[in-house]
């Protein structure tokens, strides 16, 4: 195997590094504290073509390789994983659902400006009671002939206050399980659509998240994505992209934990020597290095498989997401420990990394879910 990055990949990383150092690093602590999404940084990223991801150029995207996308997400996430998420989301559920299942009219109206960074979008899958069990959703839809009528609620929706549109899902026939689910594009300005942002979150503070409510919402027929009963397939069409994005963001944060820990261990003097000289500190640094390299191999292998045309890579996606986020949790814990009491001071960023790290083990499928998926694929109970 060739582990050398191509000239194009090196250029992408260099561009992303320059951008994050100049545009994100000076501001991230402030907007994290304020729970404010930095729209100005988003616009600059859009101007540089960072948001088009793997969406084809004909639909406003950048036609990136998955390797380039993972590399870009990782580099940006060294400064702020929320802006890393901003890079990954157009290649995730909202973008992919329209790319693979949308009509040409839907692609032109919604996907093109989204991939170009002219609009933002959100995806409503998780519900207050069903959570990981997508097929058990309680949001319902009725076919009224000229329109669809939707009632229900979604929760933990990202970009809740910035989204120009949402793709969300409702059950038409509960007796059919996941085969009764339908997907729709919702306009937040419609009558019956409302939102409730969650404030003062422990982690993921800059990104607006919260609840999305549907109360007798009349959805035009042309806003159905795919066919009736195809909603579960729509929801699952981008899970590998989403999990790769989370893993790549985790890589960037692990690297940041390592960078901060090395710098502090070299500068902090205890008992007349740098704490980097102590074996227990060295052990933590070693764990970060090995964890980062291993997580990177899993994540980049997933990207390589996608670039090689693998039709599905569910097991590999679960492995990369599971391992990278578990390593991040340990790396952030060790980084805070190395910093001692200063770990809880906003003078150092490791406290922010620690607050965010825990929730990486929940987004895009919990750690427990991915352990089940890896085992079931290995045992032959589940096929790609």
Task: Please provide a written account of the structure.
This protein is α+β, with helices and mostly antiparallel strands. It folds into three domains: about 110 residues, Butyryl-Coa Dehydrogenase, subunit A, domain 1 (Orthogonal Bundle), CATH 1.10.540.10; about 110 residues, Butyryl-CoA Dehydrogenase, subunit A, domain 2 (Beta Barrel); about 140 residues, Up-down Bundle (Butyryl-CoA Dehydrogenase, subunit A, domain 3). It is about 50% helix and about 15% strand. It has 13 helices and ten strands. Strands 1-4-5-8 form a four-stranded mixed β-sheet. Helix 5 packs antiparallel against helix 9, helix 6 runs antiparallel to helix 7 and helix 9 packs parallel to helix 11. The longest helix is centred in the middle third of the chain and has 29 residues. The radius of gyration is 21 Å and the shape is globular. The model has no long low-confidence stretch (mean pLDDT about 95).
């Amino acid at each position: 195997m060739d582990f050398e990055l191509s000239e194009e990949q090196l250029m992408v990383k260099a561009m992303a590094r320059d951008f994050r150092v100049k545009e994100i690093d000076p501001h991230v602590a402030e907007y994290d504290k304020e729970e404010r999404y930095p729209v100005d940084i988003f616009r600059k990223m859009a101007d540089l073509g960072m948001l088009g991801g793997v969406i084809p150029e004909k639909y406003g995207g950048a036609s990136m390789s998955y390797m380039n996308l993972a590399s870009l997400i990782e580099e940006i996430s060294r400064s702020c994983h929320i802006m890393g998420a901003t890079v990954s989301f157009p290649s995730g559920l909202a973008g992919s659902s329209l790319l693979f299942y949308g009509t040409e009219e839907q692609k032109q109206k919604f996907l093109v400006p989204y991939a170009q960074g002219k609009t933002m979008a959100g995806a409503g899958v998780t519900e207050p009671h069903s959570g990981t069990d997508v097929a058990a959703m309680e949001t319902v839809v009725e076919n009224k002939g000229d329109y669809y009528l939707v009632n229900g609620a979604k929760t933990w929706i990202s970009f809740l206050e910035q989204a120009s549109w949402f793709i969300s899902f409702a059950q038409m026939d509960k007796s059919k399980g996941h085969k009764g689910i339908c997907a729709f594009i919702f306009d937040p300005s419609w009558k019956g659509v409302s939102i409730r942002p969650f404030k003062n979150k422990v982690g993921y503070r800059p990104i607006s998240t919260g609840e999305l409510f549907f109360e007798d919402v009349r959805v035009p027929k042309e806003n159905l994505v795919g066919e009736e009963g195809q909603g579960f397939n729509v929801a699952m069409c981008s899970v590998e992209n989403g999990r790769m994005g989370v893993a790549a963001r985790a890589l960037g944060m692990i690297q940041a934990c390592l960078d901060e820990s090395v710098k502090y261990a070299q500068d902090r003097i205890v008992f007349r020597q740098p704490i980097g000289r102590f074996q227990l500190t060295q052990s933590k640094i070693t764990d970060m290095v090995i964890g980062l390299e291993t997580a990177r191999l899993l994540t980049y292998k997933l990207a390589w498989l996608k670039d090689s045309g693998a039709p599905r890579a569910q097991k590999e996606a679960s492995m990369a997401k599971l391992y990278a986020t578990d390593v991040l949790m340990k790396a952030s814990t060790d980084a805070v420990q190395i910093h001692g009491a200063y770990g809880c001071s906003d003078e150092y960023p490791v406290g922010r990394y620690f607050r965010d790290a825990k929730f990486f083990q929940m987004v895009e499928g919990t750690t427990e879910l991915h352990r089940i998926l890896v085992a079931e694929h290995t045992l032959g109970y589940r096929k790609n």
